[in-house]
Design brief:
490 residues; alpha+beta; 60s Ribosomal Protein L30, Chain: A; Serine Threonine Protein Phosphatase 5, Tetratricopeptide repeat; 3 domains; six-stranded mixed β-sheet; four-stranded mixed β-sheet; 13 strands; elongated
């Protein structure tokens, strides 16, 4: 390699410059003139990029060198794996007699010392020298160390002494200090469940008849749902609302009252059959004629999806013209007959919504639930179970990934699982978990994971998106990424 050849050439030059050996040097090595505490390696960028070595040379005792001796000290940057070396400009210390011989040799042979060499001669008055040298930068220099190699020559270029000094000076590979956004508490345990009861009633009546036209099965479903919600060992009911809907045929006021009465009948039936329902938390209301339900059902029916009458009514409908819209609807007898047979009956219904809160569980209680009843746990309770198992356990990741399956869009669940996967050396899996989410916090984490996988362009884009969305840590991480990329570019 170029630099290894250069080192050999430097030693040969020292031999060539050797003159007479008139006696031994007062000591063997001059490496101690290097102030190792001042050694510094850095990257210098400009039109080109260089690795720069700077240090202080203390030349106070160099006048003690034997007049016939010369010392050549070459700083060499050795790569971290030891396979490559890079030589900086050498430092020469010449005795008086040797200095004169070297000058004559340079004149007679035309061979000069390497360009940029530092030459110290016996008797020089400048005792402190600032040394600076540069080499073209290569990423292979990262985490290397500087070795000072010395050859002292005497008579006719013969080697009197060889020595080396190893320092930990080098260009340290930048280890980024990523900043993650701390996770807030996960999704709350407040839930809402909605369903519909398509009970059949005698025309213009609102009495519930369990044995009428399949009502028994519908009522059983309603009661079963409400009994589950009334289990105080798991849930606390916030409120239950019953909402009546009517089809857009018949007088609007009558329809509204009829729909509300039918909804109230179902509410009273539920309270009578489910003792755990708190009556004070039950409410009843009526929407009246469900025109929006009509438009939606018609739009999903290929036979009438583009019907002009329905389109006209949709465009003109307002709160005060329902009767007029019904008149126009009935004028289209073919359409109205179809609606009365296939669409309108489904609009006469009662919907009920249960708002409830799931009780809190201790880590030990949650540990018994996370596999079979994960929907009962909050994200924080999943995290508590994971901590109960411990990070070194196989269940740790299983629990956190179960939280993600239960709450696939929850930031806290996703962030916690992604960081756990990262710690387990599963960065690719962590990235797949976060891809497609536009949360600033998750974009910041995704950018870090992409940077750690070496996908720097994608990392920069993710971090920029996170910063633009207001993530406070992303700006710092962009700077860290820039330092990493700067070192890796030749």
């Amino acid at each position: 390699m170029k630099h290894m050849v250069y080192y050999a050439t430097s030693v040969a030059a020292v031999s060539l410059f050797a003159a007479l050996n008139a006696g031994a040097a007062t000591r063997d090595s001059w490496l101690e003139i290097i102030d190792t505490s001042s050694c510094r390696m850095e990257i210098v960028s400009g039109a080109e990029k260089y690795a720069q070595l700077s240090m202080v040379i203390n030349a106070r005792e160099t006048d003690l060198i034997s007049p016939q001796h010369s010392s050549c000290i070459i700083p060499v940057l050795v790569s971290a794996d030891g396979t490559q070396s890079y030589e900086f400009s050498p430092v020469y210390i010449d005795g008086r007699t040797r200095a004169k011989a070297i000058d004559r040799i340079e004149v007679l042979s035309g061979v000069e010392r390497p360009r940029g060499s530092v030459v110290i001669r016996q008797g020089d008055t400048d005792k402190t020298i600032q040394y600076t040298a540069r080499l073209p930068y290569s990423p292979s220099m990262l985490d290397g160390k500087v070795v000072f190699r010395e050859v002292v020559t005497g008579c006719a270029g013969c080697t009197e002494h060889e020595d080396s000094l190893v320092t930990q000076t080098g260009i340290r590979k930048h280890i980024p200090r990523w900043e993650f956004t701390s996770t807030e508490a996960g999704a709350s345990k407040t839930r809402s469940f909605s369903a519909r009861a398509d009970l059949k009633f005698v025309i213009n009546k609102f009495d519930i008849l369990p044995d009428f036209s399949g009502n028994a099965e519908i009522l059983d479903d309603v009661i079963s749902t409400l009994e589950t919600a009334s289990d105080s060992s798991l849930y606390s009911i916030v409120g239950i609302s019953f909402t009546g809907y009517a089809s857009p045929d018949g007088p609007e006021g009558f329809n509204r009252t009829l729909a509300e009465n039918r909804a109230r009948s179902l509410a009273e039936y539920a309270i009578a059959h489910v003792p755990g329902i708190p009556a004070g938390k039950v409410s009843v209301k009526s929407v009246g004629e469900d025109w929006e339900g009509l438009f939606k059902a018609a739009g999903n029916d290929d036979r009438i999806a583009s019907n002009r009458t329905i389109t006209r009514i949709r465009e003109m409908l307002s709160e005060d013209n329902w009767s007029e819209c019904e008149r126009i609807l009935k004028q289209d007898s073919e359409l109205y007959d179809y609606l009365r047979e296939c669409i309108l009956p489904s609009l006469r219904r009662t919907e009920y919504t249960i708002d409830y809160v799931i009780r809190d569980f201790s880590p030990e209680q949650a540990e018994r639930l996370w596999r079979d009843r994960p929907e009962l746990l909050s994200v924080d309770e999943f995290k508590a179970v994971a901590r109960l198992y411990g990070e070194d356990s196989p269940e740790y990741l299983d629990v956190l990934l179960a939280a993600v399956r239960t709450y696939p869009d929850d930031e806290a669940a996703l962030q916690t699982a992604a960081l756990a996967l990262r710690s387990a050396g599963k960065g690719q899996e962590a990235m797949r978990l976060l891809e497609g989410h536009d949360s600033p916090m998750l974009l910041n984490t995704l950018g870090i994971l992409q940077a750690e996988s070496g996908d720097y362009d994608e990392a920069r884009q993710s971090l920029k998106s996170a910063a633009a969305a207001g993530n406070p840590e992303a700006g710092h991480n962009i700077e860290e990424l820039s330092r990493v990329v700067e070192q890796l570019a030749p």
